[in-house]
Specification:
Rossmann fold; NADPH-cytochrome p450 Reductase, Chain A, domain 3; 4 domains; seven-stranded parallel β-sheet; six-stranded antiparallel β-sheet
Length: about 600
């Protein structure tokens, strides 16, 4: 017996329907059939019934859309989807990476969970949708009901900026809010769960059809958002071993970049080229002592942190963020410090204080006498740092490699070192334990076709994932062309992994390379200049199906690189600026233009 009783032409037509159309059709057919047991009708009876009364309305379809940079928004969206399915609601779960922006015009109920990167910008996978909503072709969303949950970091001035922008655009284009926007800080789990508890009943109510009708069967669709699962994760990191730490910049370099190798033996952890490694770290003991002295505390005071009783020094070392400032710390500390100058600046210039002083420097500049509980209340929980993985597991086995630039700077004339970079690059010794987990990044992946050309553009430690890419291409025997465009200050001091890249070229794996040593001549040369110089060949590779990857600084480099690519597309492709932008956006949607920027 044929398991599919539908004629081929109808099966073909169904395959072309969107999830929203399928959800409507399922409810319509269910109602037409009279539920579980319908009495067959003759064609004349069908016609009479149709003339007598229109078919009952189906429940409004609910789309759960995630826009994630590191996977947190994706995880929250998955949890929301599960809660909706538990109510047997017609829900669909999809990532912005797999979402066609034009589908937004047909959505009925949209629940967006979105993170923020850089200076209030949306994640890479959401850029195409963001551009559509803010462009000339923005659709009328008068029929849309929506809600937005934002994930962000309050230490940045534009906290949850992407969520605010999406929420405002949905409303400006005619959409109706189901709930006011909710913004979550780094410790988002409890607040996100509370939001899910509010939005699920609101969405259920909004989904009800105008007239009473049998509910449509839930769409029960997921695009495979769940990341590969290991026993270890952010909340349960693996106690790995630091096996190698080697400086890979020259003695006269202004940068201190370390090659790190971490032993994962026995963990069962797997990763893919393009993923990131999350690293939990301890704060510098010297920095902890400086903070305690600035607020007149000894460190032996007993407090509660992470649900347990411990000394203040222990909590400051292992549990609390003391390197990155936030508006909450600035305003809270100003209220307690008793400094009129600080109180005035905190009132009028909070953002500048956050940018200028880490918490320790602010306390040293304006010392005070605090109670231990007051200090703890001002500080947020410590969060892990993410580093692009610089190795392919097919090449290194049960290891993972990182390329870490140790951050050093001064604030108010006093020295500081990056919290996590200093931990990995200086304070840990080889054979010490380090707690790690893999953060999967499905939006930074080598092309599935090994014959596809690859163009890798990066500066500084942005070279890390490209080392992983080349190792993976070699392990796969991929025959596609590979082009590296890399920039750093000096050839002799800052050519990261020089001998490896030379070997890749010698072996024929690296087909072309273009280097930008910005300080080796009077005129500064950056990667975007090398792109423009090679515009015709860049365009040729694009026409051959090249995948373009960008890794590094989001604020400057990535924007300049995108401007160069748009100029190349316009010039070599004979397009105006708008057409060039659409061309690059199509590449982004096809996952041929991917960025890992920070």
């Amino acid at each position: 017996m044929n398991p599919n009783p539908l004629p081929p032409e109808l099966s073909s037509a169904l395959s072309a329907l969107t999830p929203v159309q399928l959800a409507w059709l399922s409810g319509y057919c269910w109602a037409q059939a009279g539920g579980a047991a319908a009495v067959p009708q003759t064609p004349s009876e069908n016609a009479a019934t149709a003339a007598a009364a229109p078919p009952p309305a189906a429940p409004a379809a609910i789309t759960v859309l995630s826009a994630s940079q590191t996977g947190n928004a994706r995880a929250v969206a998955g949890r929301l989807y599960e809660a909706l399915m538990a109510r047997e609601l017609p829900a669909t779960l999809v990532s912005c990476a797999d979402y066609k922006p034009k589908n937004i015009a047909g959505e009925q109920i949209l629940l967006l969970v979105v993170s923020t990167q850089g200076e209030g910008e949306p994640p890479e996978e959401a850029l195409s949708l963001f551009k559509l909503l803010n462009g000339k072709k923005a659709p009328d969303l008068g029929g849309l009901k929506f809600a937005v949950l934002g994930l962000g970091d309050s230490s940045y001035p534009k906290f949850c900026g992407a969520a605010a922008d999406f929420d405002a655009r949905f409303a400006a284009l005619g959409g109706t809010r189901l709930l006011p926007r909710t913004d979550c800080d780094l410790e988002f789990a409890a607040e996100a769960e509370a939001w899910i508890g509010r939005i699920v009943p609101a969405a259920a109510e909004a989904s009800k059809p105008a007239a009473s009708a049998p509910a449509a069967a839930p769409a029960a669709h997921s695009d495979g958002l769940a990341a590969p699962q290991n026993a270890y994760g952010k909340e349960n990191p693996f106690p790995a071993t630091l096996s190698v730490r080697q400086k890979i910049t020259g003695r006269n370099s202004d940068k201190d970049v370390r090659h790190i190798e971490i032993d994962l033996s026995g963990s069962g952890i797997s990763y893919t080229a393009g993923d990131a490694l999350g690293v939990w770290f301890d704060n510098d003991g010297t920095l902890v002592s400086r903070l305690l002295a600035a607020v007149s505390l000894g460190g032996d005071e007993e407090i509660e942190s992470g649900g347990t009783r411990k000394t203040l020094r222990d909590a400051l070392t292992h549990d609390l963020e003391i390197s990155q400032n936030t508006p909450q710390f600035v305003k809270g500390y100003a209220a307690l410090a008793g400094s009129a100058e600080l109180a005035q600046r905190a009132e009028t210039d909070t953002a500048a204080l956050v940018a200028e002083y880490p918490p320790v420097a602010l306390a040293e500049r304006y010392p005070a006498a605090l109670a231990a509980a007051q200090l703890v209340a001002l500080l947020r929980p410590l969060a892990p740092r993410l580093y692009s993985i610089a190795s392919a597991q097919d090449e290194v086995g049960e290891e993972v490699h990182l390329t870490v630039g140790v951050l050093r700077y001064e604030s108010d004339g006093k020295p500081f070192t990056g919290a996590a970079s200093g931990y990995l690059g200086e304070r840990l010794a080889e054979d010490d334990q380090v707690r790690v987990f893999v953060e999967h990044n499905p939006n930074f992946r080598l092309p599935p076709n090994p014959a596809a050309p690859v163009i890798m553009i990066g500066s500084g430690t942005g070279i890390a994932p490209f080392r992983a890419f080349m190792q993976q291409r070699a392990a796969d025997g991929a025959d596609g062309k590979n082009w590296l465009v890399f920039g750093n200050p000096h050839f002799t001091e800052d050519f990261l992994y020089q001998t490896e890249w030379q070997q890749f070229a010698k072996d024929g794996l690296l087909s072309k390379y273009s280097f930008a040593w910005s300080r080796d001549q009077e005129e500064k040369i950056y990667v975007q200049h090398r792109l423009r110089e090679n515009g015709a060949q860049i365009w040729q590779w694009m026409q051959e199906g090249a995948h373009i990857y960008v890794c590094g600084d989001a604020a400057k480099m990535a924007k300049d690189v995108e401007a160069a690519l748009l100029a190349i597309i316009a010039k070599e492709g004979g397009m105006d600026a708008e057409a060039a932008d659409e061309y690059l956006d199509e590449m982004r949607q096809e996952k041929r233009y991917q960025r890992d920027v920070y």
